[in-house]
């Protein structure tokens, strides 16, 4: 009887490549043709084998993000899909809207081998549902278990923003954030920012607009309100505003413009993410740019290693850089 | 023996809801609890039934888009996922990068019942691979078969852009596009734009930058080059530029600003899509806004009907509107 190994040998490709062709995964057109020719030449019976192979692995990975409205999440998913496809995996996308129930459904799929693994930006309390043997890569967030965490260098990001404000003579700065207060890398953005400012004698405060990760209309209104009430004698009391994301920074810039406050002359703004207008234009604001493509590569690299039962590092921290988007001097 | 119907009756929910719980689909937390309680109370054996149910349907749908870098595609996928999740389906995302092989792999999955259906923005020549009985919803694109096509009112979009230029006294306008020339709704953008302009005595031309759907760096450079060579006696020869997407319009605006051409005083720009800066700020440019959320709802509605063997309309065309993003007078 002809086996999958015979097909691989005849086609001059690996057994994995034949398996991918049988399962309609992406394979280089050239290799696909070789495999199809070998299958025809040898008269290989596809179906039974294909099903046998499928039972072991689904070649499907799920990514959990809060939404695809924030362009940072959309870019991350874009690159994760691209890198996964290149190694023969398909991608299920779960927009959790920070709903823990939706996230749990996908964790259960992993437990039942309906997906091979998970990549997650999650802010839910799901420590107790994770198990050590699920291939799981976390972005930014730490868990009770030693789970592989990929992030940008948030500590460095906070320091770069602080240094920019110090170097340009700011005297009274503020960090504006919202999002989870669960233990994670992103908390370091504000922490190191305020520490560096204070050490340099610059007055620094922090404003926390709540635990919701997605910036809702209500939260934007709260930020607007806060800015309106931060005026004394016709002038904004802050001369430097650092925000936890570029989406926040764009909201701040829009409101200050409406209030006829000059940017960057009267107040400077630095966001976090390094997003460009429609992802192709200029930087939306001055920002700390995360290496989103490298983060996607690191996530997929770690996850595939886990699926293949190979050892992985506990954490991957990737460098950030300051980018000038016209809202700083 | 306890059946799934007994569980549904005891929990006071439909058989479909029990099936979703067994398959880890999203179910309202309240209903999930009722089903789990009924399963325990009755001592229902989950696994065998769950597998039996799964064989019929995967509750998984694939969406094919060129990429998630263009925010229009990312928003569309965001809403498609949201609407699908509400009716108990998961979403596989395929970024085709206009590679027909990748699209075909997902069409084959549908043929083999590995996904229940497809929603596709495709510009590949895949007419011959589609079959009448695959649940398939196309966005913008027509096929040889009568396949359900969801789009915005591209004819209206072209007319709105033309009317704006006519009303503000433009004399020499141009339509700049790239993307597939295969039969589809988007071709109407330029066609009706030019017809309306010409009928009003406004000189209108069209510039086609090739078949690639994604605006690559090379294509942006071509647009820059074209604009640089469209200057006579220190002035741009066009006073109105309409583009096939907002991403194009942002590229045009950036280049003209670098050339010290005043927008909207010397030249007006209108894009297509209606995207906001980082999806939350101001409109990136003046534009024809597509109702992206309504389009997602229409796609899912039609697809689920097809999966359930119910009749659907051949085409859904949704209204567009002009939005002022500061690049028009």
Notes on the structure:
- The structure is a homodimer of 329-residue chains.
- The first copy, chain A, has a six-stranded parallel sheet, with helices on both faces.
- Chain A starts with a helix and ends in a 6-residue tail after the last strand.
- With 329 residues, chain A is an alpha/beta fold.
- Chain A has helices spanning 4-11, 15-22, 29-42, 46-56, 71-86, 100-111, 154-167, 187-199, 217-228, 246-258, 292-307, and strands spanning 60-65, 90-95, 117-120, 136-139, 149-152, 172-177, 203-208, 231-232, 235-236, 240-243, 268-273, 287-289, 315-318, 321-323.
- Chain A folds into three domains: 4-53, Orthogonal Bundle (434 Repressor (Amino-terminal Domain)), CATH 1.10.260.40; 60-152 and 292-320, Rossmann fold (3-Layer(aba) Sandwich); 154-291, Response regulator (Rossmann fold).
- In chain A, strand 8 (231-232) and strand 9 (235-236) form a beta hairpin.
- Chain A is elongated and about 90 Å long.
- In chain A, helix 5 (71-86) packs across helix 11.
- Residues 47-54 of chain A have low confidence and may be disordered.
- Chain A is built from eleven helices and 14 strands.
- Chains A and B meet through helix 5, strand 2, helix 6 and helix 10 of A and helix 5, strand 2, helix 6 and helix 10 of B.
In short, what is this structure?
Chain A is of the alpha/beta class. Chain A has 11 helices and 14 strands. Chain A has a 6-stranded parallel beta sheet, with helices on both faces. In chain A, strands 7-6-10-11-12-14 form a 6-stranded mixed beta sheet, with helices on both faces.
């Amino acid at each position: 009887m002809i086996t999958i190994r015979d097909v691989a040998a005849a086609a001059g490709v690996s057994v994995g490549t034949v398996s991918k062709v049988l399962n309609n995964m992406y394979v280089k057109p050239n290799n696909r043709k070789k495999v199809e020719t070998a299958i025809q030449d040898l008269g290989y019976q596809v179906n039974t084998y294909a099903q046998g192979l499928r039972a072991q692995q689904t070649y499907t990975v799920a990514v959990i993000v809060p939404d695809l409205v924030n362009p940072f999440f959309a870019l991350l998913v874009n690159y994760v899909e691209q890198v996964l496809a290149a190694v023969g995996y398909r991608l299920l996308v779960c927009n959790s809207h920070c709903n823990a129930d939706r996230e749990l459904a996908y964790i259960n799929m992993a437990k039942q081998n309906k997906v091979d693994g998970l990549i997650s930006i999650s802010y839910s309390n799901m420590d107790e549902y994770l198990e050590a043997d699920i291939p799981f890569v976390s972005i930014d967030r730490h868990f009770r278990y030693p789970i592989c965490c990929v992030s940008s260098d948030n500590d460095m990001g906070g320091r770069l923003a602080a240094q920019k404000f110090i170097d340009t003579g700011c005297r009274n700065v503020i960090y504006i954030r919202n999002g989870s207060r669960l233990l994670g890398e992103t908390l370091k953005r504000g922490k190191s920012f305020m520490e560096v400012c204070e050490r340099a004698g610059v007055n620094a405060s922090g404003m926390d607009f709540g635990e919701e990760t997605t910036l809702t209309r209500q939260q934007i209104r709260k930020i607007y309100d806060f800015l309106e009430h931060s005026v004394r004698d016709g002038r904004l009391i802050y001369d430097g505003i650092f925000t936890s994301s570029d989406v926040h920074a764009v909201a701040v810039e829009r409101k200050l413009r409406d209030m006829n406050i000059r940017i960057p002359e009267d107040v400077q703004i630095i966001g976090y993410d390094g997003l460009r207008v429609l992802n192709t234009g200029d930087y939306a604001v001055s920002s700390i740019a995360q290496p989103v493509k490298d983060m996607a590569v690191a996530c997929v690299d770690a996850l595939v290693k886990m699926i293949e039962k190979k050892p992985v590092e506990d954490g991957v921290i990737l460098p950030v850089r300051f980018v000038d988007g016209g809202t700083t001097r």
